[in-house]
Amino acid sequence: MNGLKIKLESHQVTAAVIGLGYVGLPLAMEIAAAGFKVIGVDLDRNRISTLKQGKSYILDVPDKVIAEAVGSGKFAPTSDFSTLANADTVSICVPTPLSKSRDPDISFILSATQEIRKYLHSDQLIVLESTTYPGTTDELIVPELEISGLKVGDDFFVAFSPERIDPGSKKSSKRQN
Known about the structure:
Elements: H1 2-9, E1 14-18, H2 24-33, E2 37-41, H3 45-52, H4 63-71, E3 75-78, E4 89-92, H5 107-119, E5 124-128, H6 136-146, E6 156-160
Parallel strand pairs: 1-2, 1-4, 2-3, 4-5, 5-6
């Protein structure tokens, strides 16, 4: 962890955000605005193309913010998960739509975690930000990542950061602090 702490303090961290929707894209832009390099990974190639052109598809992220982040080299949108090998932190911001029984569909989380495992390395921090049920990090993400042979707490680190946006809610704004 000491290596990651030193990189964080000196702004030498490369962050990755998987899922560039209404949670992931604003997060990526905030990380870039804080002075860190950000790799944005999304499977939607149209989104990636739009972002590379300096355009936004999220209402509360202006085109200017995207254009500046891409133009400065602080933000690199891609569909290539192998870029995670260069990331010191990875935030998972993928959708978790509710099933008919109101349970979150965690298939996108599991898919992202399997991709992360391929490129997991020492001193890497993995943060789950997708809405899900308690225990997802410990019960699903950690065991999947430990298949790599690395051990949580010794070689890599995990955290859960609850989503702070409630899409479609009239009580909450689109962007909260």
